Every structure is written in C-alpha cells, then in structure tokens.
Known about the structure:
alpha+beta
Amino acid sequence: MIGPAIAEIYNISVYPEHQGRGIGSDLLKFTLASLADRDVKRVELGTGSFGYQLGYYQRIGFRVDSIIKDHFLSNYSAPIFENGIQHKDMLRLYIDI
C-alpha cells in the first residue's frame, strides 16, 4: 500500500506461451476485486509509454496519471527495446475501484 486507500501493482506477467488466454486479465480483475474488498479505492502502476502493455491496462480501465521522464534510462543498466523503439519514459497509470 502506498497510502491508506491506495495500492500499487508491481510486476504482473504471464509466461509467453500462456498469453492470450485471459489468464492475466482474470488475475488482474481478481486482484482489483480483492483490493476493493479491503477498502482500497485507487490502484496505481507504472509501465512504458507505448506498447502492448499500455493498451492492455487501458482495456482494463486504467488511465494515465503522470509521466516520469527518463525513468527507464535512469533506473535500468541495459536499454529496453520494444518493436525497435527504446523505452525511456514511464507512464504512471491508475484506476479507481
């Protein structure tokens, strides 16, 4: 928890060979429902500023809250590329539950 009614999700993933079956979506929806049962009102997370993850979280209902410039440049020793584009900035997303 990052506040009295705010939680943050870190590192959610599904093995590539099991992706596309709704496992991640079911897991995330279960997590959000469980947090709501514990009186959490807002859930936050960070992700890259582009790519499949951003669309995935937006389909669940997450919205952009802020941008952390150069996050991936400052916090990772090796560059992270997706579809030939280097991740540089982190988007902070949230959903009210």
